[in-house]
Design a protein that fits this description.
The chain is flat and about 160 Å long. It is an alpha+beta fold. Helix 12 crosses helix 20. Helix content is 53%, strand content 11%.
């Protein structure tokens, strides 16, 4: 922009603070064309895009002038030269233009902010109006909902259907010409008909009450008559007791037991019924009896309201005093919770299994109410004293007598899977810690009580008689067989401890007439002592030994030869054959792992069960195995020298057994098989 243009623009502007009053008045008097300059008015007519282009062109011109001034000074122009001053004036004009553009930009910004503020205020006003309208809508919706949810009292009355109403109601109540077109009149008419029906039913109810009272009076008269018969019947029953005893018909005892059985918990009741039924049908030597506190059992079965009514005022006062005492510690509370969880039912069941020799197996069954399982304790009573055998101490031990009646049923843990979560709440690590006090929760005990916790079949609530009946016969036979086998072992152990191997007459043909080797010692040992023996490690590693087994050491001697035999007796003997592991001390130490003939001797004793079990049920199996072991040791020692040097045998062990061949095969196995009645030994 040139200086001439600036001068023309300045001539047209009259500022309010410029000139003298006389000058202003003189101009006003001459009525000249005067225009006031207002940037706001000018701002409305200006285009922001043009101002932006003007700003860019002004900046470029200003930069060009500065470059020219610098070039002039570089060429030697003086500070006050006309060319430099001219360019300075032009630069000042450009600066003035930039300032004006800056003012206009600020004015535009202020105007935009004002417009934005006004728009926000309008929006706030509209938003407030919207909130008011929404509140009114919500209030109206609530009122509408209350109106829709209103229920009249007649809606709770179960009225007859419309078809039945028009069919049964008289015309003066139904008024079909009016009610079929007006739903309100129809409802009123149906209510009137309901009222008439209820009045009629109320009259019938009163007449029925009168009839009921008449019948009750007749019942009371009959009860009085029956009550008068009770003393006479009791006298007849008392007089018939000697006849019942003579005829072995304990009717009074059975009746009393049946009355007490009504208070048994369901599992014990199922066991009581099924055991009685089995005893009457299949086993006359099985007796069942109920013991315990009947009054406490009645209190448990009584409803809570009755038990509260029966409490005396003194009991209530004591309870209030107990609640005022200080709270117990956490440990005492846990002990109380454990005792409550492990609480037994006050009634228990006793099943007695009698054998022909007079011995009796007493089984005491208990029911743990909170755990919903049955436990059992066993006790054996015999007609003779069985305290002689030291090694037989564990045979009739009540804690281990019933172990593994069925395979892998040790009775140490509860079979109910839900008990694990109950134990976690009261801090019980394992149920095995309480077995000695509460009894063993064997799986077969649960089956006898009709309880079933197996994962294969779905669990059902309560005890089932079908489950008990399906297991009763097999379990009773196993229990009787367990008692007979343990009593037979007890007698055999008494003889073995005196170095006598008892062989029954039915089994004499299994052995030669003369057996030189003899049993020197028979002792019992623990599981830890058994596992420490060097010649049984292969048996332990193979998993053929469990802690529930019984372990014994048999020493067989002949001359300087000493045969050690570690015996593993399974609780299910004689169903499971005893396991023998051998070690021979003669000219060094030998075992089945190092000597093929000792391994063959182990096979003769352990494998050929069918030859050694004798008459069923095979109660002579253990003693026959020991006798077979003595015979095999004789064959081993008498044929050993012939195998080694071909001579007729050492002087210490003269040959007394007749053998077809003293050795056979690359392993030089000896003939351990005895052939009856020929009386010679041969190879298998």
């Amino acid at each position: 922009m040139s200086s001439e243009t600036l001068k023309k623009r300045k001539a047209k502007v009259i500022r309010s603070d410029g000139g003298t009053p006389e000058t202003k008045r003189g101009r006003g008097e001459g009525e000249q064309d005067v225009r006031m300059y207002n940037e706001e008015v000018e701002l409305e007519g200006r285009d922001p895009e043009q101002d932006y282009n003007l700003y860019k062109s002004t900046c470029e011109a200003l930069a060009k002038l500065m470059a020219e001034i610098q070039e002039l000074k570089a060429n030697g122009a003086k500070e006050g030269s006309a060319e430099v001053e001219e360019r300075r004036r032009q630069g000042c004009v450009h600066f003035i233009t930039l300032k004006k553009l800056n003012r206009l930009a600020h004015m535009r910004l202020k105007k935009g902010r004002d417009q934005t503020h006004e728009a926000k205020q309008r929006v706030d006003v509209l938003h407030l109006q919207l909130q008011n309208l929404l509140y009114e809508v919500m209030h109206l919706q609530k009122e509408i909902g209350k109106c829709l949810e209103f229920k009249s009292q007649h809606e709770e009355i179960d009225l007859v259907s419309v078809d039945e109403f028009f069919k049964d109601a008289p015309a003066e109540i139904s008024r079909p010409h009016l009610t079929k077109e007006d739903p309100h009149q129809l409802t009123l008419a149906r209510l009137d008909w309901e009222l008439e029906q209820r009045k009629r039913l109320a009259e019938q109810y009163k007449s029925s009450l009168c009839t009921k009272e008449t019948i009750l009076k007749g019942i009371e008269l009959k009860k009085e008559y029956l009550g008068s018969l009770q003393p006479g019947l009791q006298a007849v029953m008392q007089a018939s007791l000697p006849v019942q005893k003579y005829l072995s018909m304990p009717i009074a005892h059975v009746q009393k037991q049946a009355e007490v059985a009504c208070h048994l918990p369901p599992p014990l009741y199922v066991l009581f019924v099924q055991a009685n039924a089995y005893g009457q049908a299949c086993d006359k030597n099985l007796t069942v009896s109920i013991s315990g506190d009947v009054d406490e059992a009645k209190a448990l079965s009584r409803p809570p309201e009755d038990s509260q009514d029966d409490e005396s005022d003194s009991d209530a006062e004591e309870e209030q005093q107990n609640t005022k005492r200080r709270r117990a510690t956490v440990g005492v509370q846990l002990d109380d919770k454990r005792k409550e969880m492990l609480k037994r039912h006050p009634l228990s069941l006793c099943v007695d299994l009698k054998c022909k020799d007079g011995s009796v197996l007493h089984l005491f069954f208990y029911y743990l109410m909170n755990l919903n399982i049955l436990t059992v304790k066993a006790k054996v009573s015999t007609s003779v004293d069985l305290s002689g055998a030291v090694s037989a101490g564990e045979l009739l031990n009540s804690e281990s007598l019933l172990n593994c009646l069925y395979a892998s049923d040790h009775g140490q843990e509860t079979p109910n899977p839900g008990n694990r979560y109950q134990f976690d709440k009261v801090g019980i690590a394992t149920f095995a810690d309480y077995v000695s006090e509460l009894g063993h929760p064997y799986i077969w005990v649960q089956s006898l009580g009709g309880l079933q916790f197996s994962s294969d079949s779905p669990q059902t609530e309560g005890a089932r008689s079908s489950v008990s009946a399906s297991h009763m016969e097999a379990t009773m036979k196993l229990l009787r067989g367990r008692l007979q086998s343990r009593l037979a072992l007890h007698k055999q152990f008494s003889s073995l401890e005196h170095s006598i191997v008892p062989v029954s007459s039915e089994c004499q043909h299994l052995f030669p007439a003369k057996v030189v080797s003899r049993l020197a010692r028979w002792t019992m040992m623990s599981y830890q002592e058994f596992t420490e023996l060097s010649f049984v490690q292969h048996v332990v590693k193979a998993g053929l030994v469990k802690e529930t087994d019984l372990f014994f050491m048999a020493i067989v001697e002949r001359g300087t030869a000493r045969l050690q035999s570690a015996v593993v007796l399974n609780p299910r003997y004689p169903e499971i054959t005893p396991l023998f592991s051998l070690s021979l001390l003669w000219k060094g130490e030998r075992s089945g792992r190092t000597d093929d003939n000792l391994r063959a001797m182990e096979s003769e004793v352990n494998v050929f069960r069918s030859e050694l079990q004798g008459p069923r049920p095979g109660l002579q199996l253990l003693t026959n195995q020991i006798q077979r072991l003595c015979v095999c040791l004789d064959v081993y020692l008498e044929t050993e020298s012939q195998v080694s040097d071909g001579s007729e045998g050492p002087r210490e062990f003269p040959r007394e057994k007749m053998c077809l061949r003293t050795a056979r095969g690359p392993n030089r196995l000896k003939p351990f098989k005895y052939n009856h009645p020929q009386g010679f030994f041969s190879h298998r």
